[in-house]
Write a structure and sequence with these properties.
There is one protein chain. This protein has 479 residues and is an alpha/beta fold. The chain has 15 helices and 22 strands. A hairpin with a 6-residue loop joins strand 18 and strand 19. Helix 5 crosses helix 7 and helix 10 crosses helix 12.
């Protein structure tokens, strides 16, 4: 056998061994030598075998497949580089608990399983590309026995409701990581966080903006480290990047047809003259099947009354009535249901591009994912203001399950989250959906996105926001 074949064979074996994971004997041996190993890595530069890469993958089949592809690319690159092979994990495979996406619940498992043999944990998105040689050069700059929190630093320009108006006097003073560029924790920091999360009660039961909340938890009111900005953690390609990012709006083929998306707009009588005209002036024209659901029938809109009285908070009764109508013969049959508020601004062409990536024969719940009580085995849900997208299969499973509202004014998005969790339907996240206004997000973050939606009309010109952030110019005619 030639030397070339022997080398390639060894590389392949290394990739396969890492893919299959350590045997029980290997794990036992690793724990037996943990103390010796920690003493060694404290005085040396880590190799790739001391790096754990966590791909923030999702349970939906499209995202799981993308995670597997990214893992294979990383392992192949490691084999070609010949500087050790990292541990590469898919976040959605760590445990049966769907709340691991919020990272904090997963830290104790990561620490217990890999903390004794690793120096760094690096978290990346499914579409984040990693250059392993450049990543090693970055990590070598930092002493591995110290606490480090590394990433591409972004900040708020003004106090934001989604961040509970933290640092309202100077929002720019607090940095948090752009997840698209990846971020890293040294093992001493991860181990301390893992221990703390098992004993601490978080200040909020809600997980709203993961990247900001993780940075706040690590910072610990000034007792922990701030994010250290690393220029090699990139989103746009440039020289010496350790990471780069592709897109949150992948090209999976031609957009789904207009007729395959049924749009339900929730409104009420007091907003017929205030909010509905904005929908008609902006994005209504891009919908083939759209109905307005209100507490009264108004032929001038026109609206449909579902027999559910208007509520000041929560719209669970109305939303479940929409589900029943969507499955009935009263409306055209479509693969996808989009439910939005009357003050939601949305790009339907971009949504239809995104939906091409998903299988309508699966139970899909898609939008901006929030979490409730996730550290204590809570549940996730798609927040309603940014738009909730459901496959027909998901709606059918939900309605036939008997899961229902405990009151008409219950929060529909949270009730749906609880129902889907009980049914084993994953909540699929896209950061292109937004529960708040553009001003409530980091400008450097959303300026690189092709946003699908924003929500709320207060203190903005909604038509101007739509034209600036959501309307595509020179858009070709679509089916």
């Amino acid at each position: 056998m030639s030397h070339h074949n022997v080398v390639n064979g060894c590389k392949l074996v290394a990739v396969l061994l890492l893919w299959l994971g350590p045997t029980a004997e290997d794990r036992h041996t690793g724990h037996a030598h943990a103390a010796e190993h920690q003493e060694h890595i404290a005085h040396s530069s880590p190799g790739l075998e001391e790096v754990v890469l966590v791909i923030q993958s999702q349970r939906n089949s499209y995202h799981a497949h993308r995670g597997v592809q990214r893992k294979a690319e990383i392992l192949q690159q490691a084999a070609e580089l010949g500087q050790g092979v990292p541990v590469v994990l898919l976040l959605h495979e760590l445990s049966a608990y769907a709340g691991d996406w919020s990272i904090l619940p997963a830290l104790p498992h990561l620490s217990a399983t890999y903390g004794q043999s690793a120096s760094w944990f690096v978290f990346i998105e499914e579409e984040t590309r990693v250059t392993l040689s450049a990543l090693l050069q970055v990590l070598h700059r930092y002493r591995v026995h110290e606490e480090w929190f590394l990433g591409k630093r972004i900040h708020d320009n003004e106090a934001s409701i989604i961040h509970h108006y933290a640092f309202s006097e100077d929002p720019r003073s607090f940095g948090y990581p752009d997840p698209a560029a990846g971020w890293a924790l040294s093992v001493p920091l991860l181990q301390r966080l893992a221990e703390g999360i098992q004993h601490d009660h978080l200040k909020s039961d809600f997980t709203i903006d993961l990247k900001h909340e993780i940075a706040l938890y690590i910072w610990e009111e000034g007792n922990g480290p701030k994010l250290t900005a690393v220029p090699e953690f990139c989103t746009e390609p440039r020289d010496n990047c350790a990471t780069t990012f592709t897109t949150y709006l992948p090209n999976c083929g031609d957009p789904v047809s207009k007729k395959d998306v049924f749009v339900a707009v929730k409104t009420c009588q007091k907003f017929h003259l205030e909010r509905v005209p904005v929908v008609k002036e902006t994005w209504e024209k891009d919908a083939e099947h759209l109905e307005y659901y209100s507490d009264v029938t108004d032929a001038s809109v026109p609206t449909i009354s579902l027999g559910v009285p208007n509520t000041e908070r929560g719209h669970c009764g109305k939303t479940f009535a929409i589900f029943r109508r969507f499955l009935s013969d009263a409306v055209p049959k479509a693969d996808w249901l989009l439910i939005v508020d009357d003050d939601t601004l949305i790009s339907l062409p971009r949504l239809r591009r995104l939906l091409r990536c998903y299988d309508p024969k699966e139970a899909v719940s898609l939008g901006e994912r929030y979490g409730y009580n996730l550290v204590q085995s809570g549940y996730s849900y798609t927040t309603g203001g940014g738009g909730m997208v459901l496959s027909r299969v998901a709606v059918s499973r939900l309605v036939s399950s008997g899961c229902r509202c405990y009151s008409d004014d219950a929060p529909d998005d949270m009730v749906l989250g609880r129902c889907f969790t009980s049914l084993g339907v994953p909540i699929t996240h896209s950061p292109l959906f937004h529960q708040a206004r553009p001003d409530d997000y980091s400008e450097s973050l959303i300026s690189l996105q092709q946003a699908i939606s924003f929500h709320k009309h207060w203190n903005i010109d909604p038509v101007a926001v739509y034209k600036h952030w959501l309307q595509d110019t020179n858009q070709r005619d679509e089916l």
